[in-house]
Design a protein that fits this description.
The chain has one helix and 33 strands. The strands form eight sheets. A five-stranded mixed β-sheet has the order 1-27-28-29-30, with no helix packed on it. It has a four-stranded antiparallel β-sheet with strand order 2-33-32-31, with no helix packed on it. Among the domains are: 106 residues, Lipocalin; 111 residues, Lipocalin (Beta Barrel), CATH 2.40.128. It starts with a helix and ends with a strand. By secondary structure, it is mostly beta strands.
Length: 410
């Protein structure tokens, strides 16, 4: 149950508990796992899904948050600026913009794209945004007015990331959880309303991956990939509950871990990282970590992955060619490789899978250990598309490096 203080602060944020997870309020959708269990999507005809609107849009990797009739995302502006904006979901027109200075920091290599990378988080009437230089803002979602801000790097001493700060913030009860990195401060919890630091914890450097909330036999934990490890934290104090070594090049891992009902945690990274599956359990107040398997035959770069039953589906590959694969999450056995699909992000909607590959091709498919069945495909974007789609009530919102497109899936 929520404590009185937590409930009061959530009400101050404008959160109604019955609607707290409506829409697509954060990275990965309602539960940060790219799954919409009750929403099936019918395949479209040969002419492709109906495009409601499209508009030219500057560079940004931030995915699109959907909140009622508003969309929220970020882009890189002229000069050294980053911009948060609200769009009308019905026609794509700008409702408001919030601009701030964000010159790149020493040690950043932004040749693959200037960002921003992180996704806007909606909590009640407030938005929480983080840019590539670690500038965190709390905004009023109705007007775009700044309510408070923090410098995760300059003010709180967080790590400078090679490709710029990438982690998408998450809410836990009445706190905002952000990955800062460094001794005693891998995670930082901030008061949702005031921005006051509640706690800091963990002696790890940062990574480009985003945190998730899991439940291990009744105990809530925040799990995130950090530099050279994956770790679990107490969300109320920041205390490290467990960690497990996982090699990754300077924290250069971007995919988000996924948690299963069988207490299996799966995660993957490119380069020398490879894929791992851990089984977590509670015994005597201690989290027991058992590695089920590890190999480098699947290396997920910056796409997400999907789990259905005992199988994980994801693209394998970093610098070379990419192959979409199916792997048994319990054993690591590879069931199949599909060369027709290149690097793609996946959203599970009921029985269906919606995939958007980096060439801008959209697929309606069914995934199973026997193979991938493609029911429909259509090219909907013209430029490199590394951002996952957002789906709400049969509407889908996509972006590539130069456009945003709204598609009707009903």
């Amino acid at each position: 149950m929520l404590r009185t203080r937590e409930l009061t602060l959530l009400l101050l944020c404008g959160v109604t508990l019955s609607a707290a997870n409506a829409g697509w309020p954060q990275w990965g959708g309602p539960n940060r796992d790219f799954v919409l269990p009750s929403e099936n999507v019918a395949p479209w005809t040969d002419s492709g899904p109906k495009v409601r609107w499209k508009r030219d849009f500057p560079f940004g990797s931030s995915s699109i948050t959907v909140d009622g009739d508003r969309l929220y995302t970020m882009y890189r502006g002229d000069g050294d600026t980053e911009i948060v904006l609200a769009l009308n979901a019905k026609n794509g027109k700008t409702v408001w913009e919030f601009k701030y200075e964000a010159p790149f920091l020493k040690g950043m290599n932004m040749k693959t794209g200037p960002g921003p990378h992180a996704t806007v988080l909606v909590v009640g009437y407030r938005l929480y945004t983080v840019g590539v230089t670690g500038k965190l803002h709390c905004l009023d979602k109705r007007s775009g007015k700044a309510l408070w801000s923090k410098g995760l790097i300059e003010e709180l001493g967080g790590n400078v990331m090679l490709r710029g700060y990438s982690n998408s913030p998450m809410r836990y009860r009445d706190t905002l959880i952000v990955m800062t990195g460094g001794k005693g401060q891998m995670l930082t919890a901030l008061d949702l309303v005031t921005g006051e630091v509640r706690w800091r914890g963990g002696d790890f450097n940062n990574s480009h991956s985003s945190p998730v909330l899991i439940n291990v036999d009744g105990q809530e934990q925040i799990v995130c990939v950090v530099e050279k490890a994956i770790a679990g934290f107490d969300p109320s104090s920041g205390r490290v509950l467990w960690s497990h070594a996982h090699e990754n090049r300077g924290g250069d891992i971007t995919s988000t871990p996924i948690w299963g009902p069988d207490n299996i945690l799966f995660f993957s990274g490119a380069y020398q990282g490879g894929s791992r599956a851990l089984h977590l359990s509670q015994w005597g107040g201690t989290t027991n970590v058992k590695e089920l398997w590890f190999h480098r035959q699947m290396r997920v770069h910056h796409s997400n992955f999907a789990r259905i039953g005992d199988y994980v589906y994801a693209p394998n590959g970093d610098f070379g060619g990419t192959i979409y694969m199916c792997i048994n999450v319990k054993t690591g056995e590879i069931k199949w490789r599909e060369r027709a699909l290149v690097r793609a992000n996946t959203v599970l909607a009921g029985r269906d899978a919606i995939l958007l590959d980096e060439d801008g091709v959209l697929y309606h498919a069914n995934l199973s250990p026997e193979g991938v069945k493609i029911n429909a495909k259509s090219k909907v974007l013209e430029n490199i598309a590394w951002t996952p789609p957002s789906i709400v009530n049969g509407r889908m919102f996509l972006r590539d490096r130069k456009q945003i497109v709204a598609v009707d899936l009903k």
